[in-house]
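note to self: the first set is below, dont mix up w the second
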Amino acid sequence: MGNQKISTPLTENKMGVMPVGKLLVNMATPMIIAMLVQAFYNVVDSYFVSRISDQKEIRESAIAAMSLAFAVQNILIGFAVGIGVGVNALLSKSLGEGNQERANRAAGNGMTLAVLATLIFMVFGVVGTRPYFQMMSNSALTVKFGTQYISICCLFSLGVFIEVLGERLLQASGRTMYTMVTQGVGAVINIILDPILIFGYGPFPEMGIAGAAVATVAGQWVAAILAILFNLKFNPDVQFGLRYFKLRADVVKPVLTVGIPSVIMNSIGSVMNIGINKILQGFTQYGEVPVNVFGIYFKLQSFFFMPLFGMNNATISIVAFNYGARKPERITKTLKIACTSALVFMLAGLAVFQAVPELLLGIFDTSADFLHMGGRALRIISLCFPFAAVCIALGASFQALGNGMYSTIVSLCRQLIVLLPVAYLLSLTGEVNAVWWAFPVAELMSLTATVILFVRIYRRKLRPLYHE
């Protein structure tokens, strides 16, 4: 059974025959739109939370709680994406090779891994959230708000695991239009429920920051249900059956080989986030303002980074499929177009952050200290956008070709090995705005590492395909 082949000719799958430029647009556009909607609702969350009270102390604590919650959410989503990316790469490769049985087992084993990971976060939701926020903040209000928010997100996290995995199954077989629907509908539900549950409109009670968490979870669960339905009805490249849910080493190993580095990358991001927040909290004369500036920056930069990740997901599927189909020309052309598009997009982001940072920040807080510090932060940090564009676009080849560890190396350079030490050293100047310069420095180093590793993987895996 392990060598069973699909009966449908390989040429019928668009990832193997459609012109590369058209294919990337076809697959990436729905995901980019979906990611933009996701970015929008992330900002909407913080917008409504920033208006939770007329009292400045409560507003600042609520925004700080959301900022500190990002690290935990990032790890949770990182586990979901890690499993999804691992399944995506194996499934795309299996379809490219014509191995239907292995494709089915990749999907089934992915579901089982998602359930197991959910159990871990449910336990953390019960026993780990309060100690985390007590470690990160001295404010009782911030601890209270953060514990409420993250506990709910963790206890009901199965929704995001199934949503992400279901969307990756659709992406792996080239059906990205459906992922736009799942993410879009989930985001819209979140946006609608946010003010209703936070402020208590109609028959709903006023839940405060817990309402924001319930709105987020509700959107994830609806998206998860849609993702399952779309796979069952519109994805004939994957067949589900109970026998495919039983974990098998020959399936789990390649999934985790690609997925674990993705989890580590997101976890590295959370460690970075925690580290930067601890450094910023050292500037006690500014209260919660530096932490809030950093948290709001992450919300705003998602308008440019999340669409980039959407294109990156499409690139991974195309490259993995054509690697399995032994079509190197399509792989290199895909990467060239992806890099060019990413660079143009992030240059646009750089222009926006340089031109109107105070206008963007004014959505959340109009205090003079926040706008002054935030404007400087956005202008300095955004200098790293062009470097990040090339890193992310080229990095798609690492995961798609089964070298996820390369992505881990780049992330380590960017967020731990370089960023935190440089940020700490700059903090010793006593000037909070100096800390932001650590981001461009770290991104430049990660670009250097990315180029070196891409040359290595090209010589070892892509160049030999041209001689087959």
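second set (the one i keep forgetting abt)
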Amino acid sequence: MARLDIVLLVLDTQRADRLSCYGHPQEISPSLDALAARATLFTRAFSAAQWTMPSHASLFTGLYPHDHGLVQSRGVLPETLPTLAERLAAGGYATAAFCNNPLVGVVNNGLRRGFQSFLNYAGLLTSRPSQAGPRRGPIARYRQFFKRSLAALLGRIQDSFARSDVLLALSFTPLMVPLWQTALSFKGNTGRSLTDAARLLVERRGLAPDQPAFVFINLMGTHAPYHPRPEHLARFGPHIQHDPAARRYLRRFNTDIYGWLAPLAAPLGPGDKATLDAVYNAEVAGQDEQVGRFLDRLRAAGRLERTLLIVCADHGDHLGEKQLVGHSFGAYNEVARVPLIVYHPGGDLPSGALREAPVSLRRVFHTVLEAAGLASAEERRLSLAATSDPDGGVVLVEALPPSNVIDLVRRHHPDLLRRYGYDQPCQALISGDDKLIRFGERHRALYNHRHDLEEHTDLYAILPERADMLEETLEAFVRRREQPALAPERPPADDPLVRKRLRDLGYLE
């Protein structure tokens, strides 16, 4: 029997609560809703980290951030860790990426390893299929050589901006912001990347007969800055068209990149909050429309029924909640809880099913390998298709803020960092219905994840014994960091202390 194609579609910065299939009251995502009705939807899925690099590294290695080590913009994924694309390529898959996020496709951090084709749609020189077409004659070969050399040079320049504090600060100046938002195509090209990915999956050019394909797609449609199509803005934010103050706020927000990173000195006013929600929702609707066309193309060609399709987000985004904007800080649900939809025709993840147990997005790695027939026994046990929960209901989120962002914010608002502990590593432990958040040694919070998704009621002082048990369970993760790095991942529920605490909490018999 022919192996399925595998598509990993990452909706960068997509909040779970802004999709209709996750409870949003408006019809905002009909394409993804229709897919979810024929797939398995995980209602409580969590990213391993709150920003792009460590989150994608967990997707590509199956490890938590403290195990894979790619937690800062200067970092590089260790060569000793085989990536998902490397594993699949070694197993006979054609591996191709269609990426709109420069932190994944441009910065030299190891996330591109294993992809036989990696097309970028953001950056100084985007790489397109037309630039990698057939080489006919010496002139065509020279052009290809020139383009590849120029792309490599510009890639090194862009990489240096991610790694240098001085250059990063320069990129946030008023003169530079318009440049990288327009000329550098920061958000890429959602429509073009989806069209190119569909063409590969349908036409199969360059693939051997019966060779399966692994396709990774990253879309940036819901990432700031927000410039939704007029028809979507009219539907979700009609007030913006008639309110000069709303338009001024949106213009200021879109150009104040520092404002995407720093905590807010005061809560957003109701008008500004409504504007931010409206433009984000309009971007969600526009991206969903484009994803729908991609799915229609696969369906019409008969490829969708021969494809394992995993739709998720690398993280969410704050839109003023908790006095935060963006995703630099914290492990609150706005950034940590993500959509996860798995369409697996003929597989072990049934159509129309809901999975309500907490799961980590890192297990996408194991799920893909199992579907490809390349998983070890331990990896099969960690697949999302497993009938029992190998993690024992325990999920970890590690929200280590980027050090260069902390340095930028500290120069302007050191008091805000200290007050909330945002300059400290943040961790969240989800165990059953409970969620403990710890900001270094300064701040703790405890929430009931099932009944308080928006995390309004802090139970830390109300339920001290439960908080203490969860903190000891979290400490078990911290102690594991003292073990040799990059050791094979063991599920946290195998730790005797973790199992004891889960038993005390009533989650294990």
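remember for set 2: The CA atoms of residues 447 and 501 lie 17 Å apart.
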